[in-house]
Design brief:
The chain is α/β, with parallel strands linked by helices. It is built from 2 helices and 8 strands; from the N terminus they run βαββββαβββ. Strands 1-4-3-2 form a 4-stranded mixed sheet, covered by helices on one side. It has a 4-stranded mixed sheet with strand order 5-8-7-6, covered by helices on one side.
Length: 122
């Protein structure tokens, strides 16, 4: 149902460094790059993620209650993504661990404050 999610950023180059590393860990390539917009994903693959400067020219803001969930292949990859995010200037929103009996996730914010998680079911 979802093709991609777009997140506003303040610094496109900083966002590119952050998301390039996360995407590489997930095995997801950059789909395209424009002057004010970068997207990661694969045609026909899972939903992608894009970052951009807001089109209206106003400063970006973080949506309250908005989160992007990145599906990992296993718990070890959840852990790697979370720690990678921390090493790239992300902030902790909940370290990796079980949430209930069948959900394992680590929560973090990117350098612009957008909330994400890496998760695996099972």
């Amino acid at each position: 149902m979802i093709g991609y999610v777009t997140l506003g950023v303040r610094d496109l180059a900083r966002a590119a460094t952050f998301y390039d590393a996360i995407a590489a860990e997930l095995g997801t390539p950059r789909m395209f790059t424009m002057e004010k917009f970068i997207a990661w994903g694969a045609p026909g693959g899972a939903a992608g993620v894009a970052v951009c400067y807001p089109h209206d020219g106003n400063p970006m803001s973080v949506g309250n209650g908005v989160m992007v969930a990145l599906e990992a292949k296993d718990k070890a990859q959840v852990d790697r993504i979370y720690h990678l995010a921390m090493s790239l200037g992300g902030t902790d929103e909940g370290p990796p661990g079980p949430r209930g009996e069948t959900f394992y996730a680590g929560y973090f914010r990117d350098p612009d404050g957008n909330k994400l998680n890496a998760y695996v079911m099972g």
